[in-house]
Structure formats: C-alpha cells, structure tokens
Amino acid sequence: MYQYNAEDKQFLVERVDQFEKQLRRHLSGELDEAKFRSLRLRNGLYMELHAHMLRIAIPYGILSSAQLRALADVADKYDRGFGHFTTRQNIQFNWIQLPEIANLLRDLTAAGLHAIQTSGKATRNITADPLSGLTEGEIEDARPYCELIRRWFNLHPEFSWLPGKFKIAINGAKLDETALRIHDLGLRLVRNEKGELGFSVFVGGGLGAAAMVAAETASFVPVADILSYLESSLRIYNLKGRRDHQKKLRIKFLVRELGAAEFSRLVDEDWQQTKDDPELKLNLNELESLKKDFALPIEPISLDGFKETVDFNYSIWKKNNVRSHKVSGHSIVNISLTKLGAPPGDATSEQMRILAKLADQFSSGEIRTTKRQTIVFPFVRKDQIFNLWKSLEQYGLASPHQGTLAQIVSCPGRDYCDLAKAVSIPIATRVQERFNDMNKLLDIGDLNINISGCENSCAHHHIADIGLLGMQKNGEEYYQITLAGETLNETNIGKKLGPSVSGETIVDAVEDIVNVYIANRQQEEKFTDVFKRIGITPFKEKVYG
Amino acid sequence: MDDIKNPTSLINKDYETINLVTFEEWIEDNGELSRLGVGIILEPSDDVSLIKDSLDSIELIALDFRNFDDGRSYSQAYLLSKRWHFRGEIIGINAHLDQLQFMIRSGITRYQLLESYSGFNEEDYANGFSICYQAAANNHGLNLKY
Fold first, then answer.
1. Residue B16: which CATH number?
2. Which chain B residues contact residue A246 at CB under 8 A?
C-alpha cells in the first residue's frame, strides 16, 4: 500500500518541531492563549472537558497494520488505553496531557501519521469512500487524487487562515459513501461525453444548525485543472466569506448569501486567470506513479470446489458484514466496534493490536475506517472469511450489527464533550437494548440511527434514516427527531418530525417510528422510500398521537 | 507603545521613506496621491482589486496582518505579487512570528513584526519548511526583515 516517502516524513518531523517550539513558548507565557489556540487546533489539539483531545488524521480512511499498532501504542503510552474512531474516518484520543504532546506526535511521524489540519479554520483531512478501488462499476479509484489534493492543501500559505473549517470529500464510485454534498466542497469523479476524466464540484454543503446540501458549481473540471479550480474556490471563500459572525463562518453561508450561480461565476472568473498556469496543473506523471503505489495487493483467484462452512451465527454475521469484491475470490469485510454500553467508535489498544494482527493475516495488512465508525478489511480471501470470523468472535469483534439498526453512529456526547447539550452514548445503548433480538434486527434491515449531542452534528444525524439531536429544555435533556436523511443515491437532509422528545421517552419514539416503517413497508422498500411514499404524517401521529 | 498599529511611513528597499495613506484616502484622491509616490495601507477588508489598475503609480503596499486569524491579507498578497506583478514592495505590517512563512510564500517582500516579538530568532520562523508541497507566489523561504 501507499506509504509516505522520506520527504513526506521530513515534512511531518518539521511540523512537530515547529509545534513543539510553539508549545514551549506557550507554556513559558510567551505565546498567548488566543494565538496558541489557533495554532494548536491546526495540530488537532482541543481543550476538552477533562483533558486535551487530539485528533489524528487517517488519510482518506486508510491505515496499515503498522500504523494501527502505532495508534495502539499512543493509546497505552499517552491515553487511557483506548481511542475513538470518528465519523470523518479519523481517530481521537481524549486524555492527552499537554506537555507530552510533542513526544506523542513525534512517535506518530515514525509511522507516517500526523495531526496536521485535523482541526482549525483550514482544509481538513479528506473524506473518501472506504471501498475505493474495491467495487465493480467504479468510475475511478479516488485514492491517488486524495493524496495529491492532500499535498496541495497541507500548509497552503494562502489558505491556512480561512473564515471557517473546510472539509473536502472525494468520491469515485456511483453510490456516494462519502456524503460529499454535505461537505464544504465535494468532488465527484465523472467522465464527460468524450470519455475524459474530470470532477463535478459541489460547494456549500454542511450540517450543524443550518444544514445545507452543496450546490454544483462546475459540472466538469478536467483532472489536470482541479488544483487551480480548488484554489479559486478557496480564494473567493477566503476573501469574501463571513468573518463577522461566529455562526456564519462556513462557506455554505457565503454560497447562500451570494447564490450558487454568483459564487460559481466569481470562482470561474478567478479560475480563467490561473487554469493555464503550469505550476497549478495536477502532475500527471506523479498521478500515474501514485496509481501504481495504490495498486491492489491481490490477484484474482479461482476457488473451485471451495465450500462455505455452515454455521448459523456465522451466516448472520456474513450476511450483514461481508460485501462482494471486484477481484474474484475476495470479499470486503466490515467489522463493527459497537458493543452494548460502550461508546460507538471506541477501540481499546488491545482491539487495535488484534485488528492489526488479523489485517496482516487476512487483509494484506490494510485497514480502512468508515464514516459509520466501523473498520473495513479490504482484501479478504473468500475461503478465509470463516477463519477471520472465528478469530473476531474469539476477541469479541464479531458483532453482526453492520447494516442493522443496532449499528448506531453517535458522538461522545455530554459524557465526554464540553460542547454537547445532552448525552448520546446512553441513548444508543438504550436503543440497542430495546432492539436486541437479531431476528427482529434482520427483519427491520438496513436502517441508520445517528445521535448527535449538540448542533455541531458530529454524528451526522441529519443524514440518517432516524436522526436524534440532543438539546436542553428547562435544564432537562431532550431530543429532536429528523427522518429520512440520505446521501447514498441522492442527498437529502432529514425532515424534522415535530417537537423534541424527552430523554425518558425517546427510545419509545424510535420504536414507534420503526413500527410505522415496518407496517407500511412494501417488500424490500427502504426507510427513505417509505417516507417519500407515505409522508411524515403517519410517523407524527404515532409518536405524538 | 507596545505594538506599531498605524505606521504613517515605511522605508522601502532603497531606504527611502515612503508616506503612507489609507485605502480610503487613496480611493478618494488617487490622482493627486499617485503623483507623490505614496504607499497604501490595506486592511484585510479592503477590496484589493480596486487598485490593480493603478499599481504602476504606487511605490509600496503595506498589508496589515495584525488580526492573527484573518487570512484575507494572504490572498491580497498573492493577487498583488503573482497575478498583477506589482513591482514595488509588499510589506506585511503588524506581522506575527508564527505566520512569517505563510506571508512570505504568499508574496510578501518584507515584513515588520509586532514589537511584542522582539528577541525571537526570526530566521527560524521565516525560513519555514524544507518541503513546500504546493506552488505559491513565492516558494523560497526568504528572510527579508524590515
């Protein structure tokens, strides 16, 4: 798999050296809190309720087994023995002590990992499809483009002090696993009528208190011109984005105020002056070289005569967790970290090491992370899936919940985060307890529940079938319900069901919603399709009736 | 005064003192001012494109970097330097140590640090990184000090 070269690693080391100096100045009183905050966020470091939280980038959601072991070491050496996989495919550690941060970051550089621009008002780590390069019918494997664009935005001198944070997603598949239209900027790989490769560009998406779907600003930007187009988009945002209002910093507000057509015109006007600049052309030789680095480590194999093991629990797990691979004889295996009562996305150092060992044994040493806070093994031989399952089961990692309602996405909530208005994890646990019958889960089928503890929407509740948003009402925790959000085929923000529901009765409300779905479902109909057909009223009547 | 927030003159690379006017003053009376060979102080909120046709008659442009989190001056520097080929000095005033490398790569030709940074080794900060991934107005770690 692709690894950072000596130059990339030198860049990481220099970044740690720089931050270490800044930290020293801060601790000795030579760098004030406001400026240090701005600098530490650009190195992924947050001040949380009880300690410092460090977010480490998992570039476009791909890790080697060695990198996962390095993260396990960080968990043991600097944290309390666990980490938290996020909905943007990164990992966070919640119990970091400030004086130790430079040593921690230095340990990571040896494994080619870093925390550069994982927070702050700059371009963040790219969200990518965890199935990039693995499935049939893909337009193009997005990973080499992700890496070239990562290089372009790391410490970009002009765009490191933007009005707000800036999140990019890149998708090369037909289905959108990245939710690119809820990103500040989404790139979709497309081919034009001549068969040439390029990007459709979508700008101004985002969740939070004002959830918006990104508008298309360019239907086709040739691959070679994408960096200059990105620069023009960011230049218009940098110069014209709102800086006067804390809640209007994101590019979505600029796009809304100007109108998507005017924003697009301004970008285009700027772009006409740079698109032919040879320095801004995507390096196509480097692209070809990266494509080789990202080549799949497996060859097609014939498994004539192979007989799958018959085992009831295995077959349920396999149905929910295993997907077909474009390379014959192989499968994609999804591993759920969700355990009853444990925070979704949390993994102990022991689990990380086990996953690293199993990845070496079964998946060519590669691991991917997903926005549903799960782990993907991308290269598992079909005749080894049972053995992998047996190992996972032995270590308590064979949860068959993938793709069922019990695979809940949740932020850390008020238990850990000082921004949260309400708890998330205990609600997830109560929902899982309510729906703990596997037959029922299988009957309900693929249904997403996402729970965010505040309007920052870290759990992406707006794009779930059932989204819960925590809030405070007269000192008590309440949850606003949104229904039928989606991003896979088309992008729709969930519709508000009605008045928020108390923490006490929220699980009843979720069950009511699921029951309305089941009662109205025709054959294999998805939740969003039922919602579109019958409307919101039957759900309202059941929950508030 | 701790920090120089409103300089009324700056020295150019030929060590001549240049009188500075604000962007508003320039817009109001650029006919007269351009004959005097003045410099202009641009605030981050000033629309830099309004001076692009008069660049030949401007000696020096001072961009104000006092607000640490306001990144507009970097785009102003890029436009003046790279796109419009301004031949005078582009001086980053009220500059912060930790941002020197970004300023210089964006096209600043000189800088004037806030006084609170006196005593620090500027070279460490101005030279920046040995690896610059992306093209910019100036990719060399200049170390020109005002």
1. 3.20.20.70
2. none
